[in-house]
Amino acid sequence: MLKYVKVSVLIVFIFLFAMCNQKSKNDLNKETILKGTIDIAVDETVKPIVDDQVAVFEGTYYDAKVNVKAKSEAELINDLLNEKTKVVITARDLTEVEKDKFAKLKINPRVTPFAVDAIAFISNKSNKDTLIALKTVIDFIKGASNTGIKGLVFDNPNSSTVRYMKDLAKVKDIPTENVFSFKTNDEVIKFVSENDGMIGVVGVNWLSQPAPEMQDIVHNINVLSVKGLSDNKYYSPTQNDIAEEKYALVRELYIINCQGYTGLGMGFASFIAGDIGQRIVLKSGLMPVKTPGRKLQIRNQITNDKENN
C-alpha cells in the first residue's frame, strides 16, 4: 500500500513540475510590445524606409523579430480584411467601406501616420527635358494621343502608385496601350534607364535609398520636376519641397494594427511614430509626421576660452 502511495505522489509531483515548466516556457514565449515575432505586410513602394525602421528596432530590442513581406497595396489590404495578416504599412488610410467591414468583424484598427512620402516621375538620362506637367500625365492616362509621352511605366497593376494616379485622373482603369507594368520599383527604374522616352512612376523612397546594386542604375535616370494642376512652377520630390507642400504628388504613410491586443504591432507602431523612428524617416529623405527636436547645449568653457584669447 505504501508503495502505491509513493508512486502516486511521484506521479503528481512530475505532473506539477511539467505544468510549471510549461507555464515558464509560455511566459518566455509570450508576445509583448517589445518581445516576440510578428509578420508585417508592407506596401512595396515604401519598403526601404520600413527595412531601416526594422533594423534599428530589432537592434534596440533583441527579443523582437519583425518579418517584412512586401506586397502590392491591393494584396495587403485584402490580407488585412481577410485576417491573413494583422499589421500592414500602407500609403493610404482605410476607406469608410473598409472601416465598416472591420466594424462588422468587431475589430478596431489602430491607424498611425508616421511619414509623408512622394511619387516621382523618372526618365532616361538621355532625355534632356527634366520638366513635366502633371496635366500631361493625366491626359495620357485618359487616353490622349498628343501628350508627347512615349510610354508610362508602373511597378504593378495593383500597386498604390497605380491607384494614386487613377484617383488623380478620375478613371476606373489605366489604358493598356503604351502602358507597361512590372513587379517592383527597381524593375521600373532599370527599364526606364535602358529605354529612351519612357516615363516611370515610382515611390521616391527607392530613389533616395537605392540598394547597392541599384546605385549606378539610379544615376542613369532623371528625376523630373513636376508642375501641379494649380501651379505655374515646377517642383521636385525633394525633402524641402515635400515639407513646404509645393510638390504635387505627396501621400501619407500609415501603419495599421489589427492585432486587438497589446502586442508587438503596437510596440513597433509606437517606435516608428516616436523620436527615434521619426529621425530615421528624416534621414531617409522623406518627411516625418513629427519633426524631431534638437537640443542645443551651451558650454561655458568654450566661451571662457574665447574671452581669454
TrEMBL record:
InterPro entries: PBP_domain, Phosphate_ABC_transporter. Residues 35-274 form the PBP domain. Keywords: Signal. Pfam families: PBP_like_2 (PF12849). This is Substrate-binding domain-containing protein.
